[in-house]
Amino acid sequence: MADVFVPDFGLTANDYSRHRAGFPPELVERLQKSGVGVRGRDVLDIGTGTGGLARLLALAGARVTGLDRSAALLEQARALDDRAGVEVTYTVASAEDTGLPDAAFDTVTAGQCWHWFDAPRAAAEIGRLLRPDGHVVIAHFDWLPLPGNVVAATEHLIGAFNPAWTMGGGTGLYPRWLTDLATAGFGSIETFSFDLDVPYTPQSWVGRVRASAGVGASLPPDKAEAFTAELTNLLRDRYPDDILHIPHRTWAVVATKRPAKPVTH
Q1: pLDDT bucket at 264, cuts 50 / 70 / 90
Q2: Does 102 fall in a domain?
Q3: What is the CATH number for 193?
Q4: 3-state class of 169 per DSSP?
Q5: Strand, coil or helix: what is 210?
Q6: Residue 262 within any structural domain of the chain
Q7: Residues 77-133: tens digit of each pLDDT
């Protein structure tokens, strides 16, 4: 049986907190247009990592709890919250078994992480945690490999160093998540997306890529260092600009908890 690719983002917590671009503020505006209230609402952000989405929601006025398996990532999240001047409550647990009380949240969000979960179990847990008519939001903020661009070249290099990594070539769209939510009984399912460029210096792009699942979260340190050197050389030789404009796509699916069916006898 082939080994299952399971990265450990705790191994790259420092790069993760320094170099991964967070969700753009426009995401909150789009969520509000989709009926997801933020200010004064109780929100749980599962798979929160270093708290990028949790912090964005807290800055918009939500009362946010962030949950993740990695204590190392949550330590980075607290430091970033301090610098941003916001408060988020963090807890170490899995998305499938949060240990949190029933009907405690108006919204549950999952940013850049749904693919790591046992979807049926996570969706069932979200249903338990949501209040009536509560919302679940699955969101992504992905770099876009396009023919000849720096992202495509970077992904090719990741694959050369880590053949077990199979996450390249993405479009930033996730239709399967809609099926996951519909199967779990959520309704009023809708999606939206928008694209933007994120500026990176070559050094920060190297750090961003090193923080990814295919490099720092899964390669041994000596191999990750060799990758860093080769990507640095690639950028110098093929993409020598002082600022790299990296295309990204923000995509989200929003769904609503349906009322429980009455028990009939």
Answers
A1: low
A2: yes
A3: 3.40.50.150
A4: coil
A5: helix
A6: no
A7: 999 999 999 999 999 999 999 999 999 999 999 999 999 999 999 999 999 999 999
Strand pairing report for 89-92 and 63-68: parallel
Predicted pLDDT at 212: 87
SS3 142: strand
Look-up of token digits 């989200």: 252
What residue numbers bound the domain in which 198 lies?
A: 9-257
Q: Please compute the mean of the pLDDT values over residues 176-183 and round it to a whole number.
A: 98
Q: Could you give the CA distance from residue 54 to residue 106 in angstroms, rounded to a whole number? A: 14
User: Which residue type sits at 198?
Assistant: V
The C-alpha angle with vertex 213 and arms to 209 and 214, in degrees rounded to 5, equals 75
Q: Write out the DSSP string of 98-110.
A: --PPTT-EEEEEE
C-beta neighbour count of 19 within 10 angstroms: 20
C-alpha distance across the termini of the chain, in Å: 48
User: Is residue 1 domain-resident?
Assistant: no
Residue 220 lies in a domain: yes
**Model pLDDT, residue 262:** 57
What predicted TM-score, i.e. pTM, was given to this entire model?
0.88
How many domains is the chain built from?
Answer: 1
